[in-house]
Every structure is written in structure tokens, then in C-alpha cells.
Specification:
Elements: H1 2-24, H2 32-48, E1 72-74, E2 84-85, H3 88-102, E3 111-117, E4 120-127, E5 130-136, E6 142-144, H4 147-150, E7 170-178, H5 181-193, H6 202-210, H7 215-220, E8 224-234, H8 241-250, E9 260-262, H9 265-278, E10 286-293, H10 296-302, E11 312-316, E12 321-333, E13 338-350, E14 353-359, H11 363-369, E15 372-373, E16 376-382, E17 386-392, E18 402-403, E19 417-421, H12 423-446, E20 464-469, H13 478-485, H14 498-506, H15 523-528, H16 534-547, H17 552-558, H18 566-576, H19 579-584, H20 587-590, H21 598-609, H22 611-622, E21 649-653, H23 661-670, E22 674-676, E23 685-688, H24 694-702, E24 705-707, H25 709-715
Parallel strand pairs: 2-11, 21-22, 21-23, 23-24
Antiparallel strand pairs: 1-6, 3-9, 3-10, 4-5, 4-7, 7-8, 10-11, 12-13, 12-16, 13-14, 13-20, 15-18, 16-17, 19-20
């Protein structure tokens, strides 16, 4: 035990050091593989000695249970915004006012200049050297508690480095959390693969990450942080801003390396001009420079307006734009089947790079901006990264420009396409229909003429948000769809992971979903492939055979139908019972299923009734895949006639030794329970496994009955 405790302490020091070298100093000493090995060793030792786990351990950065919601907390000191300026004259006027406010124009006034990072402001509070709270700016007086997400950011120390002295009683640090360009690109590629909208820019991506209820989301995204300001300090021993920043660096809190302290307005302007070129190669988004009076006493003397301090200001660069000619538009098909218009333009230099292509996002945007081939267009980089067409210079038109026509068939496989529309417009139409129905019922009851609301405009091209290929076996998206289809929560085929899918597809053994179920006829070819021995092939074929009995709900969930997830698939399978009944149902009938709206109903109807969907259904039938589902028409009971789950609203949390969470959910649903994701006053039971977190706490606060794994097993009959 003593040696394990010593090794745990040593590993924590090593991991914290390597985190600092990697994220703050940009000078890593070990490979990612070696770092992961250290972290794995620490995790194993802490699992062996749970009593030695502390909140500041590097293992705690991965996050715990998702929280139920954000708490709003008052800032110890107001978190103010900064005034902006956009020209040298405006900046000179601020500087002159500042000198006048100080009342001493003879002395040298030092200024500290910092890059203005385009991120999300945060306040970190350390007490006795420990990170205890992280708040968003909010309205400046109160902010959201985002500690659960901030703790996952590796560059932010959970414990201050105080090797040279004792930690301050209170250290409140203001700074900016942001997403590096490379991470932004990686996340957008992943979102596109999951049929999710791309983030518009790194700042939006950062804000969305910090507002996630699940810290696993923040842990998976490699956010960064730079400190730049102060809140409450106890004691406050700092005379200047540059001294304060130096102390933060000693505590292992990162500050921006491009920060400079200078002593004249001319030097400040030289920095601003030179940094405009530098910022294009930083690897993260900046939109200006913050200029601060360095002396803290002078800061206090100058004070603040009702909105912002008088002792600092942000010079913001105008977004760099360029004018070019739109030569052509191609429609690209993504991994999810989404069709995206891509513009080809005359090459132009913009924000540090030569740009020749830009995304037009969707046909709705093309229509709204009236973009035509041959147009003179103004482009800029969204978030300094993604080129996009801002507007058309219609005055330059010569009459030969061609309107852009959206495709009516997939450009890859020539299958039908489906159109998604703006969610707000769809909601407006649905609300109109609901209000009309309510008005008619009221009028019928009262014997009066119904007073109908104004009808919204019908959906048109400007309302389009996306076009999709409806063919699940389209070559542009087939492999990604198949990887999803065979996944654990869908058909759950052991031995057929992502690498195996690509290997078999490369060999021409997988060209349709049905080919999965014909692999038993290709046994000899399978054995000839690399890393495909006798036992592995046997296990693969056994997994494929076992998947045939998964049932209709799992099949529907695996087909990658837009807007159809596990919950909707289960509801549809329970309601219709088999694939044929569901296929012949009209959208209105499908929309009668609980939690299935008219848009989702149309999506499932279109998929099952187009040629590609019908071909896929027939392939699965011919292969013997079960396309039926046992209906739960009434709560079932075990042999003793006892069913404690029937009619109950249940939440599952934590880790179970004997149960897979998805299988447990399925069993409970078949026993007549409704399984939900969050605890509320309507929850009847919380099933809590090991490491149950905030859901358990909330259940206890609300007086919800809690069962451990042993009692769950007993309720299920062992």
C-alpha cells in the first residue's frame, strides 16, 4: 500500500508536468502513447485504491455523470465586457482620454497588449490552490457554473503549482476558453459524419461544448485556455498587470506568449499592425488586440463605466474580405448523404492563404443570396478558417450569369433526394395547424364561427436547410452507414468493426447491406484476407447469424434513416409490429405513434417506399433477418405474477456488473416501463449502479425510490 500511494503521487506529478509541457510550453517530452500508458497506470492504481482518489487527480478530468442543468451563480467581482474600437483615430482618442483621466501626461504610461482571442470568457476560482469553481460571464453579475466541463480542459490546472511558496487564499482568474483550428476541423468532420450540422466557427463550437450537460463532450474536445485578467484576490500583492501574468505562469496557468508591455502609443500601434499578419498563423482565432493600462493603481483611479473599464480597450480588425468571380458549383455528397454545394472561384489571396473554393452550405442560402454562376462575389473566412460567400455584387452583372439549379437526383447514384427545411419555419406551420384545430374545436363547442390565425407562407426554396440522398447504399455514404448498421446499439455484430468493414469493402465483398448476410458463402475468400484466421472468421459468421434475431426496432435504428433514433425505432416497431405493415402505412398513420411528429413520419415513409429502401428491405428478408417485433400490449409479469416495473417511469444511471445498459432498457420496456434519461418529479424509480453521480443526488433530493443492482436483479427474477 505505501509503495502504491507513492507511485500514485509520482504519476500525478508526471502527468501534470507532461500536460504542462504539451499544452502550455508546446515542448512535449514523451509520445502520446507513453503519456497514455502513464495515465492508464494511474487509473489502474486508483481503481485498486479508491480511497486514494482525490478531486485534483488527472483521472478526474474525464468527467462524471451528466448534470441535470446549469446553476446560476453570482460573481464575487463583476465580470465586465470591454469597449471596442476599429480605427487608429478612435484608439488615439481613447488613449488621450485615459491620459487626461490619469492627470499626468508627463510620466511614461506603460501599456500591456494581448491578442484578443475569439473564444468564450470564463472566471476560474482557486481557493487554497484548488480549482473550486468555473463560471461563464453571463450578464457580468451572474454566470453559469460550468465547472464540470472546465475541469476536463487539460491546460487548466486543478491544483496550482506552488513549489516556490504557499498558494493564495483566493485567486480568481479571468480568461478565454477557445478551440484550436485543427480541433475545430476535426469536430466538424465528425459532426458531418453523424449527420449533424457543422459548427459555424470555433467560438460557436466552444460555447456549445461548455454548455453541454455531459462533461464527456468537453473531455473529448481539446479546448484551450489563456488567462488575461483578475477577479477577487486574497491577498492582492500585484502592482502591475504584467507582474500578475508572470505569477499566473508560475502557477502553471497559461498566458498568451504574444503579450507585450510597451510605453507609448506609437509602439502600441506598431504591435497592432504587425500582429495582423502574425495572427493568421497562430492556429486559433483572434479578432483583435486588447490594450490595458499596466499599473493597477492607475486602473483603480480610472475606474469603469456601467458597462466596461476605462483602463482598457479592444482594437478589432475588420474581417478581411476579397472579391472574386464564381466559376462553377459542384454538389458534393457527404458520408451521411447530405448534398452540399461547393463553389469554385478564381483564386484569390485571403487571410494568409490562397482561396479557390468556398462552401455555399445549402440551396436555401444560394436562393436567399441569389448567387449565380459568373457572379462577382465577396468572400471572407468564417472564424478566420472557412471561406464563405458573403454577398453578390449585383451591380457587376452583365446578364450572362446562370442561376444555380439544385439537383433533383443524387449526383453519385441518381437516387431520389429528400429535402429538409428550416426548423423554425416548420414549427411555425405545425403551430398554425395546431392552433387551427384548437380554434375549430372551441368554435364547435360554443356553436360559433372559428377564428383562425393568419396562415404562414408556404415552404419555399429559401427555407431549405439541406438535401439528402435517400439511397442507404449510395457509394458516397455506404461504408459509414454500414459501420453504423453493424454497431453495438444496432445489429451488434461481433467481429465486424470499422476496420473490417473497410477491408471487406475494399475486396469487393460488401457492396450492399444484404452482402453482410451472404458472407457465409464467401468463407474461403475471408480466410485468404490478412488477419482473418479460422477462429476469427468463425466468430464473425456466428455474430452475423446471431444478429438476424435482433428484431425490427434494432433494424430500423441501424438503417440510418434521418430523424429516426433508438427511441423512435422502438415506438414504430411496437406500434406496427412488422416491416410490411409499417411500409404500407401513410405518413398520417405513422404520425399517430407517440413521439413521432409529421416530419419524422414523412421521413420513414419516404425511406421505406423508395426503390432503394424497398430493395434493402427485400434483401434483409431474403437473408432471414427478423423484421418483426413482439408487441407489448400490456405490462407482462414473471412466473410469480409479480412485475414491479409495469407502468413505472424509470431512470438508469451508473455502471452495472451483470447488465448491459441497452439490454436492461430493452427488458424494462418489455415489462411495461418507460425509461427516460433524466430524473424529475415524475420519476418512479432510479436504478443506480456503481459510480452513480448527479442523477442519484437529485433522486435523493426529490425522494425518488432508488434500487441498487442486487435489487434490480431480484426484480427481474434473478
Amino acid at each position: 500500500m505505501p509503495s502504491d500511494a507513492k507511485r500514485i503521487a509520482e504519476l500525478r506529478r508526471l502527468i501534470d508536468r507532461h500536460n504542462r509541457l504539451y499544452y502550455t510550453d508546446a515542448s512535449p517530452e514523451v509520445s502520446d502513447q507513453d503519456f497514455d500508458a502513464l495515465l492508464r497506470e494511474l487509473i489502474d492504481l486508483e481503481d485498486k485504491h479508491p480511497d486514494l482518489v482525490t478531486p485534483d487527480s488527472p483521472t478526474q478530468r474525464v468527467g462524471g455523470e451528466p448534470i441535470e442543468g446549469f446553476q446560476t451563480v453570482a460573481h464575487a467581482q463583476r465580470m465586465m465586457s470591454i469597449d471596442n474600437t476599429y480605427s487608429r483615430d478612435e484608439l488615439q482618442a481613447w488613449y488621450d482620454r485615459t491620459l487626461k483621466g490619469i492627470g499626468d501626461t508627463e510620466s511614461t504610461i506603460h501599456l500591456t497588449l494581448e491578442p484578443k482571442i475569439d473564444g468564450v470568457a470564463v472566471s476560474l476560482r482557486y481557493e487554497q490552490g484548488q480549482l473550486v469553481q468555473a463560471l461563464s460571464r453571463g450578464d457580468g453579475k451572474r454566470g453559469d457554473d460550468i465547472t464540470h466541463n472546465v475541469r476536463t480542459i487539460r491546460v487548466i490546472p486543478l491544483t496550482l503549482n506552488t513549489e516556490d511558496g504557499s498558494p493564495p487564499q483566493v485567486l480568481e482568474v479571468r480568461g478565454e476558453i477557445f478551440m484550436p483550428d485543427a480541433e475545430f476541423q476535426r469536430i466538424n468532420e465528425n459532426r458531418e459524419a453523424q449527420d449533424l450540422d457543422r459548427f459555424a466557427n470555433p467560438r460557436n463550437a466552444t460555447a456549445g461544448t461548455l454548455k453541454s450537460l455531459d462533461p464527456a463532450t468537453a473531455a473529448e474536445r481539446r479546448l484551450m485556455f489563456y488567462a488575461h485578467g483578475r477577479g477577487e484576490l486574497a491577498p492582492n500583492n500585484f502592482k502591475t498587470h504584467h507582474e500578475f501574468l508572470a505569477a499566473l505562469r508560475a502557477f502553471d496557468l497559461p498566458t498568451n506568449e504574444h503579450t507585450q508591455t510597451i510605453d507609448s502609443f506609437d509602439q502600441a500601434w506598431q504591435f497592432i499592425e504587425s500582429f495582423q499578419d502574425t495572427r493568421n498563423n497562430l492556429g486559433y482565432a483572434t479578432d483583435g488586440v486588447v490594450i490595458k493600462i499596466d499599473d493597477h493603481t492607475l486602473q483603480e483611479q480610472l475606474g469603469a463605466t456601467s458597462k466596461a473599464p476605462r483602463w482598457c480597450i479592444a482594437y478589432k480588425y475588420a474581417a478581411e474580405q476579397a472579391t472574386t468571380t464564381l466559376l462553377n458549383v459542384e454538389w458534393q455528397v457527404g458520408k451521411t448523404g447530405k448534398l452540399t454545394p461547393r463553389a469554385t472561384m478564381e483564386a484569390v489571396f485571403l487571410a494568409g492563404t490562397t482561396v479557390q473554393h468556398a462552401t455555399l452550405h445549402n440551396y436555401g442560402e444560394v436562393h436567399r443570396k441569389d448567387i449565380r454562376i459568373g457572379d462577382t462575389v465577396i468572400i471572407e473566412k468564417a472564424g478566420e478558417i472557412i471561406p464563405q460567400v458573403i454577398r453578390v455584387d449585383a451591380d457587376q452583372r452583365k446578364g450572362k450569369e446562370k442561376k444555380i439549379t439544385p439537383p433533383k437526383k443524387c449526383p453519385i447514384c441518381k437516387s431520389d433526394i429528400a429535402i429538409d427545411y428550416d426548423t423554425k419555419r416548420l414549427n411555425d406551420i405545425e403551430r398554425f395547424e395546431a392552433r387551427c384545430e384548437a380554434a375549430k374545436k372551441k368554435a364547435e363547442k360554443e356553436g360559433t364561427t372559428p377564428q383562425l390565425p393568419d396562415k404562414p407562407d408556404p415552404l419555399g426554396p429559401a427555407d431549405e436547410s439541406a438535401r439528402y440522398c435517400t439511397n442507404p447504399e449510395c457509394p458516397a455514404q455506404f461504408r459509414e452507414k454500414l459501420i453504423w448498421f453493424v454497431g453495438r446499439n444496432q445489429m451488434d455484430i461481433d467481429g465486424l468493426g470499422e476496420k473490417a468493414i473497410h477491408q471487406l469493402a475494399d475486396e469487393g465483398l460488401l457492396t450492399t447491406f444484404g452482402d453482410v448476410y451472404n458472407l457465409h458463402t464467401q468463407r474461403d475468400k475471408l480466410l485468404e484476407l490478412d488477419r482473418m484466421g479460422e477462429k476469427k472468421v468463425e466468430n464473425l459468421l456466428a455474430g452475423i447469424e446471431a444478429s438476424k434475431s435482433q428484431g425490427l426496432a434494432r433494424v430500423l435504428a441501424g438503417l440510418g434513416i434521418r430523424q429516426i433514433g433508438a427511441s423512435a425505432s422502438t415506438a414504430l416497431a411496437q406500434h406496427f409490429g412488422d416491416i410490411d405493415t409499417l411500409t404500407i402505412a401513410d405518413p398520417e398513420s405513422i404520425a399517430q405513434v407517440e413521439d413521432i411528429g409529421p416530419i419524422t413520419a414523412q421521413s420513414i415513409h419516404d425511406f421505406l417506399n423508395n426503390p432503394a429502401g424497398q430493395h434493402l428491405s427485400q434483401e434483409l428478408k431474403d437473408a432471414g433477418v427478423k423484421l418483426t417485433e413482439e408487441k407489448v400490449t400490456a405490462p407482462t409479469t414473471d412466473d410469480s405474477g409479480n412485475n414491479p416495473f409495469a407502468g413505472k417511469t424509470i431512470v438508469i444511471t451508473g455502471t452495472f456488473v451483470a447488465f448491459d445498459r441497452n439490454d436492461l432498457k430493452s427488458r424494462l420496456t418489455k415489462l411495461g416501463a418507460k425509461v427516460t434519461g433524466s430524473v424529475s418529479k415524475n420519476t418512479d424509480l432510479l436504478l443506480a449502479g456503481e459510480k452513480a453521480g448527479s442523477k442519484l443526488s437529485k433522486a435523493e433530493q426529490l425522494g425518488v425510490e432508488v434500487w441498487d443492482e442486487a435489487r434490480v436483479a431480484d426484480g427481474l427474477g434473478g
